[in-house]
Fold this sequence. Notes:
Mean pLDDT of chain B: 94
Shape of chain B: globular
Strand content of chain A: 15-25%
Helix content of chain A: 40-55%
Order of helices and strands of chain B: EEEHEHEHHE
Low-confidence stretches of chain B: none
Number of helices of chain A: 8
Strand order of the largest sheet of chain B: 1-2-3-4-5-6
Mean pLDDT of chain A: 84
Largest sheet of chain A: 8 strands, mixed
Oligomer: heterodimer
Low-confidence stretches of chain A: none
Number of strands of chain B: 6
Radius of gyration of chain B: 13 Å
CATH superfamily of chain B: STAS domain
Structural class of chain B: alpha/beta
CATH class of chain B: Alpha Beta
CATH architecture of chain B: 2-Layer Sandwich
Order of helices and strands of chain A: HHEHHEEHEEHEHEEEEH
Number of strands of chain A: 10
Distance between the termini of chain A: 137 Å
Structural class of chain A: alpha+beta
Amino acid sequence: MDQKINDKSDDRIGWEKEKQNFIDEISDLKILYQTIAEHSSTIENELERKNQEITNLIQQLRKYLSPQLYDLIVGRPEQASLQYQRKFLTIFFSDIVGFTEISNEVDPEILSSVLNGYLNDMAQIALRYGGTIDKFIGDAIMVFFGDPEFTDNATHARDCCLMALEMREAVKKNDRHWMQQGVSQGLKVRMGIHSGYCTVGNFGSKNRMDYTIIGGNVNIASRLESLADPNSILLSSVTRNLLSEEFISHFKHSIQIKGIHHPVEVHELLAYKLSDLPTHHPFVSMDQDGFVIDKIHFDRTTNTEEDLEAIEVALTNLLSQIENYRP
Amino acid sequence: MKKLIAGESTITFEETESLLVFEGSMRLANMKEYDVVTDFLKESSETSPQNLTMDLRSLKFLNSSGITTLSLFILTCKKNNQPQITVLKNDNISWQQKSVTNFKKLWDDVEIKD
């Protein structure tokens, strides 16, 4: 009898002990669960913070890349490798006339400010027309059309020429600003455009590569730019032949470029007939054979500063046209 | 000295100092893959039954399976009531700020030092 009671008591003690162990284990598991959950939250929060940092960095990157290239790199990173291909492109070069002299004469802070303002304006225009900004080389700008997005050769040539014409108008506005800022020479820009097959892709090392174009046709565009007069746009006949009749240009001469076996026919791009640029040739209607001067009313008592400037621009343009057409 | 390489992390056991040093990023895929870590910790605790220091100051990342493995190891030590565990943490590493402190909730005898 006593033995039975003792056995029951032992069972009860054993059961109580097991129960306590079970309760302790559940308690430990609760803490373990809590620990893991908190740890996971910490990692998730850290991940979110890092994602935000990456998003911000990508947004910064957007400023330095064309939208097409940005989408290509961000959307399909495997594309950003050392690959290249031959493509027919339209290439644009521009640089500032006498920039070395300007940089020697002008305070570096002012120069930096006006140059960045100018480059920013030009970049905005280039991006609006779908150009890929290849690079800024000091004061020079290199843009191409046809990669990474390809439409057709005529569209690329048209967009590039419209971009150049709008840039020229923007330069005129910048010219006044530069003079107001103390750059006595103001701002004059020369531009060159050529179309042809180039090798396009990522060049460099795996750690540092540039998405750019290379080839003889790139050199032709650069050479045309260097031959252009201040505020004029030179085209090769290849680009000219891709343009519609709405573009007004005239043949200048043929040149021999080092490394190119055939002579290059050079045209000057003057205007686009359907242009809606607000300051484009005020008081002048252009056609492919010449121009017609609209009525100019000069009245020193009523003309505003803007009126006078518009008249001055019109007359300067006309003189330039006449000079260019003279045999 | 014994060393375990676990993915992008290493655990070094200094027997003479009863010291486990964790380094790198511990991100093994699942609990099964953490079996090698569990075994390594178990052997270390058997070699140093009195006390054991876990130096986590250079462990930059630990995933959820990893924290579970370390927590279960703490619970095993608690069940055996040995060895006495000291954890060295680094508050400059975000995951350590809270998770390491939680070891003490698992076993109140765990000592945590910065």
